[in-house]
Amino acid sequence: MTALSAPVVDPWLYPLLLPLHRILMQGYFGTLHVSGQEHLPPQGPVVWAVKHYSRWDPLVIAQLSPKPLYFMTNANQFVGFQGWLIQRLGAFPVDLNRPQLSSLRSAVTLLHQGQPLVIFPEGGIVRDRPLRSLKPGAARLVLQAEATAPQPGTIPIVPIGLKYDPAPQVGAQIWIQIGKPLSTADLPPNLEVKMAAHQLTQQLQAALLDCLMVL
């Protein structure tokens, strides 16, 4: 992958595995309860900012979209067969300790192509508290993408909370709450990028907490 390229979902492998994915999720977990699905844009670029509770989260979240999702994924997951597979299903690596410019460029390119991008803004799995302080990466990404987009304020960030009851295990019920999209158009005008990213991150933190509190 070059610095300016974007991940590509394998057009043969994805439809082949899609029925197996449905069977796995329906057979392993209990009922999936989803509220707020009307807040997910049916088309166009969007960032899904998701609470990260379990390694199952990407498979769970994928059930919400009729088309492939793209995932910014911890670089340490790209090993062996797992790495080979997830890279062909829309995941691309990001080093959480030293994010590379190529990862940002890949994400920006995807958004410019009108693709849905999934980010776990806590930066890792968190179970010991409702929500860890969010990293500013999601906000910075959207600001960067919109800075080079034809029209500003057109890449929403959708907060998504999820909960496994009682835990991510066989038969668990899954509850998902999707919040109203956030937009850079709602930020005060003429903010410098660092302050805009800070304010957007704070808005996302509050919105994600609101989603989690109703689960």
UniProtKB/TrEMBL annotation:
GO terms for biological process: phosphatidic acid biosynthetic process. Residues 46-165 form the Phospholipid/glycerol acyltransferase domain. It comes from the Bacteria. Keywords: Acyltransferase, Transferase. GO terms for molecular function: 1-acylglycerol-3-phosphate O-acyltransferase activity. Pfam families: Acyltransferase. SUPFAM superfamilies: Glycerol-3-phosphate (1)-acyltransferase. PANTHER family: 1-ACYL-SN-GLYCEROL-3-PHOSPHATE ACYLTRANSFERASE (PTHR10434). This is 1-acyl-sn-glycerol-3-phosphate acyltransferase. It comes from Petrachloros mirabilis ULC683.
